[in-house]
Design goal:
There is one protein chain. The chain is mainly α. The protein folds into two domains: 10-28 and 145-211, Helix-hairpin-Helix base-excision DNA repair enzymes (C-terminal) (Endonuclease Iii, domain 2); 37-136, Hypothetical protein, domain 2 (Endonuclease III, domain 1, Orthogonal Bundle), CATH 1.10.340.30. It has helices spanning 10-24, 37-46, 52-65, 69-73, 77-84, 90-108, 116-120, 127-136, 147-155, 164-174, 180-193, 206-211. It is elongated.
């Protein structure tokens, strides 16, 4: 990590980020506790505007009531809502969990589908949720972009996209397809542990200091 390295190009920065994160996080465990594709799907849905830690605290209580589509479809929405209330947005999430469970039974024989289109047709399942399920449940290359990844991609000047859609497209162009699944988790880990929203202003963590030694601490650069 020589100070003389040239990180003027977006690709050079991306290559360094990939190498360093692989050194820091050789293992990439899935943050959300789950048993199978269905419980992962529900856990990811619950994680919207909620921490993974909180979701992992709540889901055992939900699984004790129902941990498969057939059982969940029989649970009243109000009961689901009461269990998942600590995750926030419980009215919408409970309705979505009940609805997607019924659709899995009606359209997919009770199995979680393995295509983006079919996943995104389920209630409460957007592109990011579908990407997580495709990557983490089925091992299909995907690059789910959450707030950590969007923030760090901008901070490291890997994208100039204002929205997660453009950030996802830019990151997919920069990194090889076979690296996407592990890399998106590595960026999340780093964003939580080192380059946090409040703890690093673009000059504090190791990767920021290496990529942008010209930045001065306490002065945010324009994106």
């Amino acid at each position: 990590m020589s100070g003389a390295a040239d990180f003027s190009s977006r690709q050079a920065r991306a290559d360094f980020v990939a190498r360093r994160l692989a050194e820091l996080y050789p293992e990439t465990p899935i943050p959300l506790d789950h048993r199978d594709p269905y419980t992962l799907l529900v856990a990811v849905l619950l994680s919207a505007q909620c921490t993974d830690k909180r979701v992992n605290e709540v889901t055992p209580h939900l699984w004790a009531v129902a941990d498969n589509p057939a059982a969940m479809a029989r649970v009243p929405v109000e009961k689901i809502r009461a269990i998942i209330r600590p995750c926030g947005l419980s009215p919408q999430k409970a309705k979505a969990i009940s609805g997607l469970s019924r659709l899995l039974l009606e359209r997919h024989g009770g199995a979680v589908p393995r295509t983006f289109g079919e996943l995104e047709a389920l209630p409460g399942v957007g592109h990011k949720t579908a990407s997580v399920v495709m990557a983490q449940a089925f091992g299909e290359p995907a690059f789910p972009v959450d707030t950590h990844i969007h923030r760090l991609a901008q901070r490291w000047k890997l994208t100039d996209g204002r929205g997660v859609e453009q950030t996802e497209r830019d990151l997919k162009r920069l990194f090889p397809r076979e690296a996407w699944n592990r890399l998106h988790l590595r960026i999340i880990y780093y964003g939580r542990e080192h380059c946090t929203a409040r703890g690093c202003d673009g000059t504090g963590c190791e990767i920021c200091r290496t990529l942008f030694p010209e930045r001065k601490r306490g002065v945010r650069t324009r994106k």
